[in-house]
Design goal:
By secondary structure, this protein is mainly β.
Amino acid sequence: QVQLVESGGGLVQVGGSLRLSCAASGRAFSSYAMAWFRQAPGREREFVASINWSGGSSGYAASVQGRFFISRDNAKNTVYLQMNSLKPEDTGVYYCHATEGTVPYWGQGTRVTVSS
């Protein structure tokens, strides 16, 4: 069983930055593929960014490419999402996602609100 706890959300003005963190339990964290998803009010959950087990490969949704950066620290069992140049459309609940083998896990989410 993998538990994921997100933190770092909050209220920020347009153009600002936030860094989200996701702390994971489990001794095999360094083998997990990790990702961030988000869900805006009234919309479906969508992919934001992903990173492989070593941190050597990452991917981003087109809407955040060049503004958001995913990273991980396997020594701390933590994955991060650095969010820059935030826009109102980035508002939503951000969820951490882990894949252990073929089994997916989700965190409880952290809310990000970008005010104009």
